[in-house]
Design brief:
With 875 residues, this protein is mainly α. 65% of the residues lie in helices and 4% in strands. The protein is built from 48 helices and eight strands. Strands 2-3-4-1-5 form a five-stranded parallel sheet, with helices on both faces. Strands 6-8-7 form a three-stranded antiparallel sheet.
């Protein structure tokens, strides 16, 4: 969006101070809503600009000048967020404004919550609110039902918005300024005309004031005409009093005093709305647009600068309407051509949204269709695909049947507004017409189609079809470098990788996500980089490679923070991956905080697997904290949200196993056992471990071991939380039948699996029941003394529900010592570490001595243990 939409209006030298109205604004700003409702030219914007310029607002001012392109809920609220960000409304709003996505309802809800956190007043001005029609009325009504205490909303509009103004009046939550209030008094009219350098008789001034009824716009335009008029009294005599007559007279009077070339410039540039010199040149075919605009701005009435540098200008609303009426009357055939020129210029300068508005309003359907077909992907990536909606509704005939690129654009627009069925119909139409796409654009079209088809599939769960489409594209080599642009290739690859991730084809997913990341980096497309890296974090977490998952998650979060995207759904995926690792490392407090960030970022997302992940992790945290009923409610809600989405069985089974264990804890042990056992035994390894745990709790250790024995291959050595839990259950069952040697062996196997990834939570989840075995393991001898010691510390200090107190290091490790430290938990020798770091063995030994000294430990094992407690290493 252009910066001019958010620029505070510069104080116009021709505007006289109007103390009564400024005082009224001061008084009204104690209420949630101030409404300025009056016809064009009444001086609404000028009054607000003067009020701001005199430093009267009670807090920061977020200014938003609206236009027809904002008449869509998503674009409107993104513009509001950007205005608030520019006004420095707070970090939470700045994060939300950086890259808002998801449903508008969630966006408005999150914004309301962020505003509620403020203590100091904040003024939001919505100028020209009539441009957005009824699109956001329901949202504003909801916002004003329980307005955030700090928010002061100011709406300037030509007509009453259909808000529930009656309720606001009764509750004394509304201050109104209307046409009679804004009309200039006789004294103000006298001062205004004097400031314009007009020496008029008092009687002429009174008659002019009476004829115009103090209408500010008409008075200012009259003052412009009076500057060079030979007979002011005659001017006033001929001046009509009704709006239409005033308009007719002023346009005739002003236009009759300019040259034919100046008239041509005024008429043609009125079509563009906000105008810059270059756009004026494109509309008129001249090369002096900037000079002409600056001269007109200095006249004080025809148009005003939108920024302090004087690059962008906008005609006074009344005058623009008059000029456009003249243009339509004199040169009706020229209007579509001017809209076409405006659309072309705006599209070339990256303002695709306004370009489409002009193309549609000018009924330049060929241009509108071309912009849609060529730019829809850019709009999608910027979150502005909703600007296609007017074209979707107004494009005549069967354009999508003969233009597959337009059909593809419409599919994206329809998908954005949630019309999945119609989006799929347009996708089918686009696919059927692929032979009509010009050969030079066909590769891009095919990749675009694949990317959109994959996106539809991810949302609806039709992953098989999506994968076939993506893989056929890859088989033909159309995802290779040089075939299509890197940004499009990255988008297709990332969608394919995500679809493969959710179907459990992890090697292929890793390959395509890595390639997507590289292509996006090549194109400088950080948004797709963020999506790819966040899902690489999810993928690593799926196979419980927690260190790698955390590295990717933190990389994605750092990028999101740098670009202010922390409240977007890809950032939510990264937060979710990090929170899962923190939970498995037994950092429950950290996990809870990170999960809250994930939930904020994923509010309203249509990505059901991510919603499922949120539910599972929230369930685990609640259960670990003893809130069993709340955990069960969270799990059931997550299962409903997931619906029939075809997640890989091992993930979906977590819902079945989780429900059984929670219901067992609530006393439904028999139901839970039957649910897990089924008719033919447990269906998954996770189900078998959970069933064995229930049978062990029921006093049936032999039956518990039989249940595990049926799953001997996974029990053999899977470095997963389920594998760790399986061996702990086996150890507890053997201990229950007094086979202490066997119990020690099984516990050691559990520790073997837990140590590399730091899966402490999988052991601590058994609570103090496992403490005697751990203490005995220390006495008998174990290869995991550091890990066992930490587990015992946690169990003794906090009943296994959070981390023990972390000490501090007196002398920090150097960067090189930290590099060596990271290799100590491995089985690598000093020689191997030296090779990895490209240093000598003696250098490694020197660093080791320094590490031992600074950590106050005697050997490598104790160094690892203490470094983990100091959080210098992952648990």
């Amino acid at each position: 969006m252009p910066a001019t939409k958010f620029a505070l209006p510069p104080e116009n030298a021709g505007i006289i101070p109007r103390k009564r109205l400024i005082d009224a604004l001061d008084s009204g700003l104690r209420r949630p809503l101030t409404l300025l409702a009056a016809p064009p030219g009444a001086g609404k914007t000028a009054l607000l600009g003067s009020w701001v310029a005199h430093g009267r607002p009670p807090g920061p001012v977020a200014w938003l000048s609206l236009d027809a392109a904002d008449a869509e809920r998503g674009r409107f609220w993104r513009a509001v967020l950007e205005a608030l960000r520019r006004a420095r409304a707070g970090g939470a709003i700045a994060e939300l404004a950086a890259h808002p996505h998801g449903r508008v309802e969630a966006l408005v809800s999150t914004l309301t919550a962020a505003l509620a956190e403020r203590d100091d007043p904040l003024v939001l001005v919505l100028d020209d609110f009539h441009e957005v029609g009824d699109a956001v009325i329901a949202d504003l009504d909801l916002l004003l039902l329980h307005p955030p205490p700090a928010l002061r909303l100011v709406i300037a509009t030509r007509a009453d918005p259909p808000l529930r103004l009656g309720r606001l009046r009764v509750q004394d939550q509304l201050m109104e300024l209307r046409e009679p209030d804004l009309a200039l008094t006789l004294e103000e009219t006298t001062r205004m005309l004097a400031a314009a350098g007009l020496g008029m008789a008092d009687g002429d001034v009174r008659r002019l004031w009476e004829h115009t009824e103090g209408w500010a716009g008409a008075l200012r335009l009259a003052a412009l005409s009076l500057r060079d008029h030979p007979d002011p009294a005659a001017f006033v005599d001929d001046f009509a009093g009704d709006d239409r007559a005033i308009s007719d007279y002023l346009i005739t009077e002003v236009m009759s005093r300019v040259s034919a070339e100046e008239r041509r410039f005024l008429l043609r540039t009125s079509i563009g709305g906000a105008t810059t010199g270059e756009l004026a040149n494109a509309l008129t075919g001249s090369d002096d647009g900037h000079r002409r605009l600056a001269e007109l701005a200095r006249s004080g009435a025809l148009l005003a600068p939108l920024d302090r540098r004087g690059e962008w200008y906008r005609y006074h609303a009344l005058f623009r309407e008059l000029l456009q009426a003249e243009l339509r009357s004199e040169s009706p055939a020229l209007v579509p051509e001017l809209h076409r020129r405006a659309a072309l210029w705006l599209a070339e300068h990256g303002d695709d949204a306004r370009a489409l508005v002009h193309a549609v309003e000018g009924e330049a359907w060929d241009l509108a269709a071309r912009i849609a077909g060529e730019r829809w992907l850019d709009l999608l990536l910027r979150g502005e695909v909703e600007t296609l909606q007017p074209l979707v509704e107004r494009l005549p005939g069967d354009w999508t049947a003969r233009d597959p690129e337009v059909a593809l654009a419409f599919a994206g627009a329809l998908l954005d507004r949630g019309d999945h069925a119609e989006a799929e119909r347009m996708l089918a139409r686009a696919e059927a017409g692929v032979q009509h796409v010009p050969p030079e654009r066909r590769p891009r079209f095919m990749v675009s189609f694949s990317a959109l088809a994959l996106y539809v599939a991810r949302l609806r769960g039709d992953l098989d079809t999506a994968l076939r489409t993506g893989r056929e594209l890859a088989r033909r080599g159309e995802l290779e470098p040089g075939v299509v642009d890197a940004d499009l290739r990255a988008l297709a690859l990332v969608n394919l990788g995500i679809a493969e991730l959710w179907t459990g084809e992890l090697d292929a997913a890793s390959h395509h996500l890595d390639r997507a990341r590289g292509a996006a980096a090549e194109a400088g497309h950080d948004w797709v980089v963020l999506i790819a890296v966040a899902h690489l974090a999810m993928l690593a977490g799926t196979v419980f490679d927690l260190p790698r998952s955390v590295r990717h998650a933190r990389e994605a979060i750092a990028l999101a923070e740098r670009r202010r995207w922390t409240r977007t759904w890809p950032a939510g995926a990264a937060f979710l991956a990090l929170a899962a690792a923190e939970f498995l490392w037994d950092r429950a407090d950290d996990a809870a905080q990170t999960l809250e960030r994930a939930e904020r970022a994923l509010a309203g997302t249509q990505e059901r697997p991510l919603r499922a992940g949120l539910a599972l992790l929230r369930t685990a945290l609640l259960s670990r904290g003893g809130e069993t009923e709340a955990a069960l409610a969270a799990l059931e809600a997550g299962a409903v949200e997931l619906g029939d989405f075809p997640l890989i069985p091992s993930v979906r089974e977590h819902f079945v196993v989780g429900e059984a264990m929670l219901r067992a804890e609530l006393g439904e042990r028999e139901w839970a056992t039957r649910r897990l056992a089924g008719e033919a035994g447990p269906r998954t390894w996770a189900g078998a471990v959970a069933l064995a745990q229930l049978r062990l709790a029921a006093g049936e250790p032999e039956l518990a071991r039989e249940t595990l024995a049926a799953w001997a291959p996974p029990l053999g050595g899977a470095p997963t939380p389920t594998g760790v839990r399986g061996w702990v259950v086996d150890a507890l069952a053997l201990d229950a039948v007094a086979d202490h040697d066997g119990a020690a062996a099984s516990l050691e196997r559990a520790l073997d699996l837990a140590e590399p990834g730091g899966l402490r939570s999988s052991v601590l989840g058994f609570g103090r029941s496992v403490r005697p075995l751990l203490a005995r393991q220390l006495r008998r001898g174990t290869a995991h003394r550091s890990l066992v010691g930490e587990l015992l510390d946690a169990l003794d200090g906090t009943n296994g529900r959070s981390r023990p107190h972390v000490p501090f290091v007196v002398e920090p490790l150097s960067p090189r010592e930290q590099a060596v430290l990271r290799y100590l938990p491995t089985m690598m020798s000093n020689q191997e570490i030296a090779s990895e770091l490209f240093v000598s063995v003696n250098t490694v030994k020197t660093h080791l001595k320094a590490i031992y000294r600074k950590l106050d430990v005697p050997d490598r094992r104790e160094a690892v243990r203490r470094a983990r407690r100091l959080e210098l290493l992952a648990p």
